[in-house]
């Protein structure tokens, strides 16, 4: 008998197939008992503006009037999200923004009781249910735990109706009470961003799975009409962005805020020597575009200490701040900018202008029932003590009094049911005009309404320009950044 739980949101990403192959080759008898018995993946065509924003930077820039183009003409593939990859996401948060363009369709079956193939392909003809543009395929899986077909677990979003062939089965379809963070839905972005369909049209979809991933390819006439959108760039020359950063770089409000702050800084400097002290492609290109007399030096990976010896008397130091690899980090990891500023202190001019000039660590109390429940400590499950894994899994709720819950990074807007209960307070202020120094602070929390407080959410607001108090907020109402969540050991009614 084999029992396994080698599953991620896409199903295959944690090595399910090679693990099953090894088990069947070396450990199992023929036709063994297995739990789970079978897994089936499903997909659905959807239209959603935000999902389009997460992968289509070229067309979004074309709609803007600021004149900044991060993607050169004819080179659409040079900057963007990783191709042929699915991204885990809580799609329920987009329920009101999603237009369904098809019924759910079955993609692959994986039988745990027999040795799986390393790869497989399938062709599907999907009948569309609405006019629209296919911005993404949302995928999920249905797990059949027993061979009789009486126990099921599904990661389907709660707004997607279960396919006809499993509708009457006892499935654990997600509701707000079942929200969990360990398994989400998967989002796949098509190669063509203008895949228009009409109601009752038949879309030819090719699906392929490898040992660790599932990908799709449209074979429709619509896509053939869009061949001109595809360029010759290869992955070797692609600068890969997360979907959230791709959406940010095309956000007109964010660009307006950044460009206004940059233009004001440039007006205060003649022939500036500007150092971009993070990995921001946008700032490097924007400053070069806005000031023909400026000398712009990006501190991208590769410049390093040897490159710094050629720098002298920098009078404009800028950052978003953004650093590759920090997309899933806690917000204060981007205070690396302050560290970089400190290391550069000897080559900064006395009147150097620094943007952002300050960072404000903000906090608010929140109602987070789904997140708290999903991170709750394990105790006894089916008669077995599971408490030994709480530390490893990062459990927070119901911790012993001697232990303290960690700070965890989350997109709060995707955390199920949420509500802000307090006013926003400032915990710490970081002054980037001065070298880095240790600091500490505390602040009272003023509740604006009664409610169950499950924890506190923290983030950094970046003061781009002090005189006009131009502030870039990365708080819980923003989709492009993760916030830090500190769940309480035991929730209570507050105030």
Characterise this structure:
The chain has 495 residues and is an alpha+beta fold. The protein folds into three domains: 2-241, Distorted Sandwich (Hnrnp arginine n-methyltransferase1); 251-355, Rossmann fold (3-Layer(aba) Sandwich), CATH 3.40.50.150; 359-494, Hnrnp arginine n-methyltransferase1. The chain is built from eleven helices and 29 strands. The strands form eight sheets. Strands 3, 5, 6, 7, 10, 11 and 12 form a seven-stranded antiparallel sheet that branches. Helix 7 links the parallel strand 17 and strand 18 (295-298). Helix 6 (252-267) packs across helix 7. One of its GO terms (molecular function) is protein-arginine N-methyltransferase activity. It comes from Erythranthe guttata. Keywords: Methyltransferase, S-adenosyl-L-methionine, Transferase. This is Protein arginine N-methyltransferase domain-containing protein.
């Amino acid at each position: 008998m084999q029992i396994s739980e080698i599953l991620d949101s896409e199903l295959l990403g944690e090595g399910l197939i090679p693990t099953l192959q090894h088990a069947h080759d070396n450990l199992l008898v023929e036709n063994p008992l297995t739990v789970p018995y079978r897994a089936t993946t499903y997909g659905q065509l959807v239209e959603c503006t935000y999902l389009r924003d997460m992968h289509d930077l070229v067309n979004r820039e074309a709609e803007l009037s600021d004149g900044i183009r991060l993607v050169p003409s004819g080179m659409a593939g040079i900057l963007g999200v990783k191709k042929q990859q699915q991204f885990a996401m809580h799609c329920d948060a987009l329920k009101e923004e999603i237009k369904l363009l098809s019924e759910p369709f079955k993609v692959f079956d994986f039988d745990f009781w027999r040795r799986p193939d390393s790869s497989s392909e399938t062709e599907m003809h999907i009948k569309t249910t609405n006019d629209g543009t296919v911005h993404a395929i949302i995928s999920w899986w249905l797990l059949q735990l027993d061979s009789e077909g009486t126990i099921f677990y599904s990661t389907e979003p709660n707004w997607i109706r279960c396919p006809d062939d499993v509708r009457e089965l006892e499935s654990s379809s997600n509701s707000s009470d079942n929200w969990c963070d360990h398994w989400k839905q998967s989002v796949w972005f098509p190669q063509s961003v203008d895949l228009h369909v009409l109601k009752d049209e038949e879309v030819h979809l090719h699906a392929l799975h490898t040992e660790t991933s599932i990908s799709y390819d449209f074979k429709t006439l619509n896509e053939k009409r869009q061949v001109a959108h595809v360029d010759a760039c290869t992955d070797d020359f692609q600068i890969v962005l997360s979907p959230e950063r791709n959406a940010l770089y095309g956000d007109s409000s964010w660009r307006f805020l950044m460009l206004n702050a940059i233009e004001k800084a440039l007006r205060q400097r003649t022939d500036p020597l500007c150092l971009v002290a993070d990995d921001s492609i946008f700032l490097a290109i924007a400053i070069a575009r806005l000031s023909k007399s400026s000398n712009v030096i990006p501190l991208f990976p590769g410049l390093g200490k040897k490159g710094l010896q050629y720098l002298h008397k920098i009078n404009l130091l800028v950052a978003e701040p953004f650093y590759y690899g920090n997309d899933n980090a806690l917000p204060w990891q981007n205070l690396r900018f302050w560290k970089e500023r400190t290391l550069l202190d000897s080559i900064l001019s006395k009147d150097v202008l620094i943007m952002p000039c300050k960072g404000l660590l903000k906090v608010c109390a929140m109602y987070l029932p789904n997140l708290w429940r999903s991170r709750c400590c394990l105790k006894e499950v089916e008669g077995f003590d599971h408490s030994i894994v709480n530390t490893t899994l990062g459990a927070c709720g119901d911790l012993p009094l001697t232990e303290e819950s960690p700070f965890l990074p989350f997109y709060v807007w995707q955390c199920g049911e949420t509500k802000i209960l307090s006013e926003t307070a400032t915990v710490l202020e970081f002054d980037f005009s001065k070298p880095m120094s240790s600091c500490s602070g505390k602040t009272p929390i003023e509740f604006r309404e009664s409610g169950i407080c499950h924890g506190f959410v923290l983030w950094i607001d970046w003061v781009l320009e002090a005189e006009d108090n131009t502030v870039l907020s990365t708080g819980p109402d923003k989709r492009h950044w993760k916030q830090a969540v500190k769940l309480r050991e035991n929730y209570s009614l507050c105030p």
